[in-house]
Amino acid sequence: MPAYDQPIIMPAGDLAVVVEYGDEIDPEINAIVHRAVAAIERADIDGVVEVAPTYRSALVYYDPFQITFNDVAAALRDLSLDSDKAGDTRRIVEIPTLYGGDYGPDLPFVASNAGMSEREVARIHSGTDYLVYAMGFSPGFPYLGGLDPRLDTPRLKSPRTSTPAGSVGIAETQTGVYPVASPGGWQLIGRTPLRLFDAESESPAVIHPGDRVRFVPIDGETAFEEISRRVEDGSYVIRTRSAR
Amino acid sequence: MSGQMLEVIQPGLLTTVQDLGRWGYQGYGVPVCGALDPVSLRIGNILVGNHESLAGLEMTGVGPTLRFTEDAVVAVTGADLGPRIDSKPIPSWESLRVPSGSTLSFGGPLDGLRAYLAVAGGIDVPPVMGSRSTDLKSGFGGLNGRAIQAGDKLPIGQSSLAENWSPKSLPAAISRQPTYGQTFEIRVVMGPQDRMFTKTGIAVLLTSEYTVSTDSDRTGCRLEGPPVGHVRGPDIVSDGSALGSIQVPGSGAPIILLADRGTTGGYTKVATVISPDIGLLAQAMPGAKVRFAAVSVEEAHEILREQEDMIREIKAAVGLDMTGAISVKSEGAEVSVQDAERRPITASGVRASKTISRTVSATVDGQQYEFEIEVGSA
Questions:
Q1: Amino acid B361: pLDDT
Q2: Tell me, what's the ipTM?
Q3: Which of A103, A166, A224, B196 has its CA 20 to 30 A from that of B186?
Q4: Strands A90-99 and A212-217
Q5: CB count, 10 Å around CB of B373?
Q6: Which class for A203: exposed (0-12), middle (13-18), buried (19 or more C-beta within 10 A)?
Q7: Dihedrals φ, ψ of B291, to 5°?
Q8: Sign of the four-CA dihedral B144, B150, B151, B155
Q9: Rounded-to-integer distance, Cα A46 and Cα A43, Å
Q10: Which of residues 34-53 of B touch A (CB under 8 A)?
């Protein structure tokens, strides 16, 4: 079932509403969510204070001293999403990634599970633009969609107590990258030297909801260390392209 | 930095730097955090002449022992954890001057769970993404992203209080010295996913008494009691988690999501605690009883309005009410507002037939100011 004909608007307490466009993980529904978020930001509705997109909905916080629930609901219902699809021109953020070895200790398992070579896993994994459906779980963590089904891999039987920041992993049908070190049960296939979340930075998250992400293989440890150094001294420029 | 410091002698059970939260980044997966009982922190700040959004300390259950290295103005609000200065009990919900070298300690929890210490000038740790709140899970904000420890020195900001500023207590009409007790009546707005629960499940939620579990923390208030039944299971495609969301996993035991909640979650949410009752809930200790009552969104807004009126009344009583302190109206004439050095604050060509001059006194952040207002031809 695709997106709803009309969004469903539900109160989430006295300071927020949920505007829901569907109830599946689906790129079409998610595209509507990101279009809606862009439209809400453009509309600059007095009293709307924060908008957080998810897979299939947005949580919209408002100030009830500036706008009533009914007026927020009406404004969200009346958003025009079709006339302007300019918001669908999305960035592709390139994430340089060193596959395998110490940086991707579970690559051999993922490869044998898929019945292919490690090199083939890296080739398939880095051959797709992944959609950033939403962010959550931890600061800067992107929920990515579009993993090749051949790379589906069960989670680790016992989760690691710490997964290094920048780890690129697979868990069942999902792939993702850990912005900060955290415990986790994902199969780690590689690591990026980029710092994807930096609380001290003016724009703390490199990846944004609605972006696409492309993992670009790094050729060896020396190249990884070189990028790492440039990230550290601030001279590394993250490559982005725009996609229709 | 050579400013005032607050030395931590004992950290208490869980003492963190918190302000009103890190708003604006939930879309990037960044939790809001902030004081679990924001109204108590706001009132504490007002009582010490601070802007209400400055950071204070949230102290849980067993309070810390802190030493002031210079004279300070402080207020303790929220739970009664038995505050003392140099071992002598002090009242909560009013500000007091403490001399340099004094020690603030706490005898033990008497009523409620979370107390707040507001200090004139605020706890002046560097803001991270616009907030000084501690994010314990991600490890940033507050003091190095963690609870305070013995030996820490907490910087205190510059206070604008005048020498002759006198400590404040709550206006007589407002008895904010609450008794939290062991039974909490919490009001909720139904939804967002109330349709995914059985009629019986919702009736159970609204008529049963729940007990606050010992697993509760800053992320969620976990409840034990009769299970709230789902129509078709507890899982949804994850969506946003608002403050106060009551999520119900498969066990049927409700969890109320608080300030440190993750930004998204995949469990159905039957109802949402209204924002004016969040601070009350934050005072419920493990073992306390919680009952829910449903209100409409409009009723919740009315309750919120009453709460904000009460806060405004406190501000007015302690001389922080800026509303209407300076009002400049002009018809026909344009107006120039200048600072003490005659630099225009807002200016445009002034044309008026005569010059009118007025001196107005107003209290700003606890300090008395004389404003000279002059309207006339340039």
A1: 67
A2: 0.92
A3: B196
A4: parallel
A5: 15
A6: exposed
A7: -125, 145
A8: positive
A9: 9
A10: none
In percent, how much of chain A has pLDDT > 70? 96
CB-based contact, B172 to chain A, within 8 Å: no
Residue A55 has pLDDT above 90, yes or no: yes
pLDDT by residue (tens digit) across A151-178? 999 999 888 988 999 999 999 999 999 9
Which of A11, A23, A137 is closest, CB to CB, to B237?
A: A23
Cβ-Cβ contacts under 8 Å between A and B: the total is: 142
pLDDT of residue A102: 95
pLDDT tens digits for range B94-107: 999 999 999 999 99
Which residues of chain A lie closer than 8 angstroms to B247, CB-CB?
none
**Measured between alpha carbons, how far is B296 from A198 in angstroms, rounded to an integer?**
40
Residues 6 or more apart from B203 whose CB is under 8 A from it?
none
How many Å apart are CA A200 and CA A197, to the nearest integer?
9
Q: What does chain B come to in residues? A: 378
Residue B123 · residue B155 · CB < 8 Å: yes
- For residues B174 and B170, give the distance between their C-alpha atoms in angstroms, rounded to a whole number: 6
Residues in a beta bridge with B154: B6
Contacts of B298 in chain A (CB under 8 A): 68-69
Give the predicted TM-score (pTM) of the model. 0.88
Q: Which of B28, B272, B275 sits opposite A139 (nearest CB)?
A: B28
pLDDT at A130 exceeding the cut of 90: yes
The minimum CA-CA distance between A136 and chain B, rounded to whole Å, is 4
Is A49 a residue whose pLDDT tops 90?
yes
User: For residue B239, which amino acid is it?
Assistant: D
Mean pLDDT of chain A: 93
Task: Report the C-alpha gap between B93 and B178 in whole angstroms.
Answer: 10
| A interface test, pick of B33, B144, B239 with most A CB neighbours within 10 Å | B239
Q: Do B245 and A13 lie within an 8 Å CB cutoff?
A: yes
Both tokens assigned to B136: 């314990």
- B214 half-sphere exposure, CB direction, 13 A CA radius: 0
The pLDDT, as a whole number, for residue B172 is: 79
Q: Test B269 with A12 for CB contact under 8 angstroms.
A: yes
Residue whose token pair is 């208490």: B12
Instruction: Give me the count of residues in chain A.
Output: 244
pLDDT of residue B174: 76
At residue B240, the 3 state secondary structure works out as strand
Query: With an 8 Å Cβ cutoff, is B264 touching chain A?
Result: yes
Task: Give per-10-residue mean pLDDT for chain B (378 aa).
Answer: 83 98 97 98 96 97 97 96 97 95 95 97 97 96 98 93 84 73 96 97 98 96 97 92 96 96 94 98 97 98 96 85 46 52 46 56 63 55
Quote the minimal CA–CA distance from B165 to chain A in Å: 32
Helices B297-317 & B38-47, crossing angle to 10 degrees? 20
Please answer whether residues B16 and B132 qualify as being in contact, where contact means their C-beta atoms are separated by less than 8 angstroms: no
Please check whether residue B193 is in contact with residue B270, taking contact to mean a CB–CB distance below 8 angstroms: yes
- A155: helix, coil or strand? coil
Q: Which residue carries 């999902």 as its tokens?
A: A174
Q: What are phi and psi of B203, to 5 degrees?
A: -65, -40
